[in-house]
Design a protein that fits this description.
five-stranded mixed sheet, 330 residues, alpha+beta, D-amino Acid Aminotransferase, Chain A, domain 1, 2 domains, OB fold (Dihydrolipoamide Acetyltransferase, E2P), single chain, 19 strands
Amino acid sequence: MQPVLPMLAQPAADIESAMGLLGTAILEWKLDGARVQVHKSGEEVRVYTRNLNDVTTAVPEIVSVVRQAKPNSVILDGEAIALRADGRPHPFQLTMRRFGRKLDVEALRAELALSVFFFDCLYRDGEPLVARPASERHDLLRLSLPRETVTPSLITDDAEKAKAFYDGALAQGHEGVMAKAMNAPYESGRRGAGWLKVKRARTLELVVLAAEWGHGRRKGWLSNLHLGARDPRSGEFVMLGKTFKGLTDEVLEWQTKEFLARETGRDDWTVRVRPELVVEIAFNDLQESPHYPAGLALRFARVKGYRPDKRPDEADTIDTVRRIYEESLS
């Protein structure tokens, strides 16, 4: 009943590169849910978030599942997620409604039931497992829980089988896969090299509307980009979010000069620019947001590169962005 920080994963460019690094690997569906760590001792079950907050009372479904686990005592790592009737996931924001501060749990449970899928076992009947190889923990987890509460997995060294497994996860509406080294221990609170995440990235060509001055080693450079999609009706640009990820020192130096040459105004932190530079942005998802005019925001946005061959009027429109979001709900 003392939660530990979760182990985190490093990104991999694609499934082929992940397999090339790991060789034989444990592949698991990567679900876009709420990370949960569940502790069981006899009849007592406690559920914690990735930030180690106790949310037991908010998730009775998870408590019920773990009470039925075979071991008398166990610590499990997994994802709680709200699924549609066809088994595809609801948007992440809907899942997170179940973890709000003031909840009518029974009403929310009837409206938005949670499923839980576990992918690791840290402790089992008095024995800590964190130093054991991932392959052993994989097998012990499956001995401890019903199949329907365990994240789908595949152990393989075959790149084609790995690609088919990855494609299957995407087809079910999930983010991608986790690829784990067979001998990886569970490194609490660390982004271990033994865990790699492979997620599908979508791209949009957006226009830079402003940029914020960087901090630390980026001090003196304009870094955090304000990104906008074109509204074909008004000709204006609708802001969708910010990112400073994916920028090399060379790009930071180049874009700072370009932004200052296009400056239209500033405050202490931000320089506004003429909307002339098109940048290709990779992102994982779109989510509803009250903070931006379009009501949508990019999730996990990062810069792929500038597109000097594109004019601002050739950038992606807000209609395209809305269509991508609507397709994610279907």
